[in-house]
Design goal:
201 residues, mainly alpha, Butyryl-CoA Dehydrogenase, subunit A, domain 3, two-stranded antiparallel sheet, two-stranded antiparallel ribbon, 5 helices, 9% strand, elongated, CASP/CASPL, transmembrane helix
């Protein structure tokens, strides 16, 4: 085994220029996607978190705010967490690109994969729950005599809809990133492992 390499770290050797080019493209794509997650997450949380509208009915003011719907509260929290998590991962990606990313630690790759999977499920679940709540607000539920709230609070619904679109963008990017982190993890256990191990002794 080479000196200076810990037992939990695998040295990655590439078979040619194509693999190196693929590695560079994946690093850039991951960085761009994580930046998009951070940006869309902040945007979605800000749009929904600041959303409110006041209407007057028979001299009585009624205020609609995002805290009235638990699905929107959950969406704001999850997107805030996703943005913060992505910011941390952006720093890691930049450091990896500056260092060349020659050595991949299995434990780190596994941790990143697990966290990405959890965030992908969370963002998707939050967006789906908020979409269901938005559908009820837009179309109501005639069978249960639930009225169309968006007919009364159009500005509130429009801003929430924009935030929901950003949340779905976060979900899509997060699912894509989790697929990339899965590739980064499982390639350490692929067929190339035998060649790399035999070439390092």
């Amino acid at each position: 085994m080479k000196e200076g390499v810990s037992p939990g770290t695998v040295a990655v050797y590439y078979g040619g220029g194509k693999m190196k080019a693929l590695e560079r493209r994946m690093k850039v794509a991951e960085l761009v996607l994580r930046c998009a997650i951070c940006g869309f997450g902040v945007l979605a949380a800000a749009l929904i978190g600041s959303d409110s509208q006041v209407r007057e009915f028979f001299s009585v003011e009624k205020k609609a705010k995002f805290t009235d719907m638990k699905a929107l509260v959950f969406l704001v929290i999850v997107n805030g967490i996703a943005a913060t998590y992505s910011l941390v991962q952006i720093v890691r990606c930049v450091m990896s690109m500056l260092n060349g990313g020659v050595l991949l630690n299995k434990a780190l790759a596994c941790a990143i994969f697990s966290c990405d999977q959890v965030m992908a499920y969370l963002t998707l679940a939050a967006a789906a729950a908020a979409a269901q709540a938005a559908e009820l607000g837009e179309f109501g539920q005639p069978e249960l005599q639930w009225m169309k709230i968006c007919d009364l609070y159009k500005k509130f619904c429009a801003q929430s809809g924009a935030g929901l679109a950003g949340a779905f963008a976060v979900s899509f990017c997060m699912v894509t990133v989790s697929s990339m982190s899965a590739f980064n993890l499982f390639r350490l256990y692929g067929k190339n492992k035998g060649r790399k191990s035999s070439g390092s002794w």
